[in-house]
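We include the pair:
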Amino acid sequence: MVRRVTNEMVREFWDKEYAGYSQPFRAVVTAPLLNKLGAFSPIPCSTRS
């Protein structure tokens, strides 16, 4: 996926910075991003009755 990124700064972050993160730290830094992206998901995680 990173190979398709055209912005050099963004690609460098994923290739160098993020690649050096431990698995637990990756979970910590990606959780808030995934939470925000969930708002754009077409599939609701929960429904109201």
About this structure: The mean pLDDT is 85. The chain has two helices and no strands. Residues 3 and 11 are 8 Å apart (CA to CA).
